[in-house]
Amino acid sequence: MNHHYDAMVLGGGTAGERIAAGLARAGRDVALVEDRLVGGIAPYFACLPSKSLLLSARRGEPWELAVARRDALTGGRTDDRAAARMAEAGVTVLRGRGRVAGPGRVEVGGSAYGCAELVVCTGSEPVIPPVDGLADVPLWTSDDALSVPDLPRRLVVLGGGPVGCELAQAYASFGSQVAVVEASGRLLTAEAPFAGDVLADALRRTGVDLRLGADVARIERKESGLRLWLSDGGTLDADRVLVAAGRRPRTAGLGLETLGLSPGPGVPVDATCRVRGAEGSVWAAGDVTGIARTTHAARYQADVVLANLLGGRREADYRAVPRVVYTTPTVYAVGITPGQAAGLGIDVATAGYDLAATARAAVEADVPGRVELYADRSRGLLIGAAAAGLHAEEWMSEIALAIRAGTPLSLLADVVHAFPTYGESVEAPLRELAGRLAAPQATPEEEAR
Ligand SMILES: Cc1cc2nc3c(=O)[nH]c(=O)nc-3n(C[C@H](O)[C@H](O)[C@H](O)COP(=O)(O)OP(=O)(O)OC[C@H]3O[C@@H](n4cnc5c(N)ncnc54)[C@H](O)[C@@H]3O)c2cc1C
Ligand SMILES: NC(=O)c1ccc[n+]([C@@H]2O[C@H](COP(=O)([O-])OP(=O)(O)OC[C@H]3O[C@@H](n4cnc5c(N)ncnc54)[C@H](O)[C@@H]3O)[C@@H](O)[C@H]2O)c1
């Protein structure tokens, strides 16, 4: 065996990088195993390049400038800076594909290493749906769509989730003729229905052809481009197909069975992010856990792992982790959706407000939007919220705090927002919920008792 580390971190993305650096700074002997780019997908192929393209689109910049800006932001997709950060923290980076060989044993590129603690942070990978003919045509995943310099004339996006919607809006804004095929009847199906409806209107205004409730049955190469046959009998012609049909935790081929784990939808973790049912001391954070699948959630879980590995006791609380789609308008959601509440048997009170009624929307001459707040009637507390509106990712943070802190509705309804801001839009629904769910007043007799 080459070396025995205090800890080995498998996968050097958002979660893995943070854990490895934190442990090394605390004096631990740590190896980070990475087979692509230190930093993972967020800085090179996901969050940053997609937000860069969307910003350029909003500013009306030409495609060439947008690509130059995107590529500068991603450092040309090289990880020199991230690797230097690791070296500075005292982390040993082992380049290559890592595989667990048993409790406390990891193999990388034919060499075997030992470790007291193992942390699995291998992220997620795109799901390629089993569509007839898809394997024979040149397809893009989000990695390609966010790194190549080509602007396809006709682009078909398979999937209307966060990835599909962000990329459809970006490419349509730069002049591609874009169609989105979404199997369910709505965009962003996981969120409150109004959010997908507002976004659908916005995408249609950008010229996107939405095929909702349809699936792609077959794809064929034509003399000039591709033809897609849809399950509803429709057809679409394209030069490029972008698959944005979901992502799954990257667990295949990791050797997790040597730790006694059986294959599943993700690496199962408890509230401390320790892997359930694994032999040895094994932890996991980020997309591979299949829990929250965002960069901020990966960071949060990384901090939980770190605290526990450094001798503390910390549990993750996922009640108020935001989910944001950075389109125009932004779609922001946090906590429980009305659909989830129904599934959990929670009696929900809903109050909403159209952003068009705010003075800020009049000033900005903005696209329409809406906010909705969801409260648990039995406890009189906010448990979820959604908003579709410009910069909702910024002004909805107070609602995330309110859900996380369990702030009483009466107190929230007393908060003053600056005028004219979009933040004012939560005042009326908060007052409404506070009034509807007010704790019953005690009678004088009850008070005397
Ligand atoms: C197009 C797109 C846009 C997104 N935009 C946002 C956004 O705006 N905001 C947001 O919060 N989230 C966004 N996300 C989600 C976000 O990117 C992920 O949730 C986050 O990057 C997950 O971090 P991670 O550390 O779990 O995984 P990753 O960053 O994927 O890191 C995992 C690393 O493990 C490495 N690896 C895997 N297996 C092995 C192995 N066997 N050996 C060695 N190395 C291995 C991989 O090479 C990779 O570098 C977006 C996702 C996509 C696809
Ligand atoms: N801003 C952000 O935070 C951000 C942005 C992008 C992605 N992400 C993360 O990345 C993850 C993956 O996003 P995603 O949009 O790829 O996945 P998703 O699972 O959220 O959405 C995929 C969509 O594709 C549809 N679909 C699946 N197969 C299909 C088929 N054959 N034909 C037509 N439609 C089909 C599904 O009905 C679903 O609506 C998200 O869960 C999210 O956490 C986050």
From TrEMBL:
<comment type="similarity">
    <text>Belongs to the class-I pyridine nucleotide-disulfide oxidoreductase family.</text>
</comment>
<dbReference type="Pfam" id="PF07992">
    <property type="entry name" value="Pyr_redox_2"/>
</dbReference>
<dbReference type="InterPro" id="IPR004099">
    <property type="entry name" value="Pyr_nucl-diS_OxRdtase_dimer"/>
</dbReference>
<feature type="domain" description="FAD/NAD(P)-binding">
    <location>
        <begin position="5"/>
        <end position="302"/>
    </location>
</feature>
<dbReference type="InterPro" id="IPR023753">
    <property type="entry name" value="FAD/NAD-binding_dom"/>
</dbReference>
<protein>
    <submittedName>
        <fullName>Dihydrolipoyl dehydrogenase family protein</fullName>
        <ecNumber>1.-.-.-</ecNumber>
    </submittedName>
</protein>
<dbReference type="InterPro" id="IPR036188">
    <property type="entry name" value="FAD/NAD-bd_sf"/>
</dbReference>
<dbReference type="InterPro" id="IPR016156">
    <property type="entry name" value="FAD/NAD-linked_Rdtase_dimer_sf"/>
</dbReference>
<feature type="domain" description="Pyridine nucleotide-disulphide oxidoreductase dimerisation">
    <location>
        <begin position="321"/>
        <end position="427"/>
    </location>
</feature>
<keyword id="KW-0560">Oxidoreductase</keyword>
<keyword id="KW-0274">FAD</keyword>
<keyword id="KW-0285">Flavoprotein</keyword>
<dbReference type="InterPro" id="IPR001100">
    <property type="entry name" value="Pyr_nuc-diS_OxRdtase"/>
</dbReference>
<dbReference type="Pfam" id="PF02852">
    <property type="entry name" value="Pyr_redox_dim"/>
</dbReference>
<dbReference type="GO" id="GO:0016491">
    <property type="term" value="F:oxidoreductase activity"/>
</dbReference>
